[in-house]
TrEMBL record:
Pfam families in the record: YjbQ (PF01894)
Protein's name according to its UniProt entry: UPF0047 protein C4A8.02c
InterPro entries, per database record: UPF0047_YjbQ-like, YjbQ-like_sf
Superkingdom as given in the UniProt entry: Eukaryota
Highest classification ranks of the organism: Eukaryota, Viridiplantae, Streptophyta, Embryophyta, Tracheophyta
Amino acid sequence: MMLMQQTSALFSPNPAWKTATLRRGYHLVASQILKEIRPDLSEFKSGFAHLFLQHTSASLTINENYDSDVRGDTNTFLNKIVPEGRSAPWKHTLEGPDDMPVHIKSSMFDCTLTLPITDGKLNMGTWQGIWLREHRNAPTVRRVVVTLNGI
């Protein structure tokens, strides 16, 4: 059995899709990720794709990709459990009043995903999608590193 490994950097500096244009909220990024890794992904019969977002004020998550109410309800939950604004109790506000809340939200959802690869495709459920959650009010360019491992 031969172990193959391929690493691809996504979204930056690739000019085709810059996350700096995304506003605060949830953004379905599965198709952009697949577009970038499809040639390499198709070489794997079995393995794992590891996605790593190199930022502490955004996050990656897998959730339903059909009903937009899921995004709205998740926003409602996050804003209720992690208050924002000048009246919030946070001490870390170096980059503004949303600074500490975005770090908490990023930690809650994490910056990594590991997905199974089966027959050259990501083996995800029918209604599952890969979401990048931009927590900042003023987003910056986001970089996702994808590492593919398998046979």
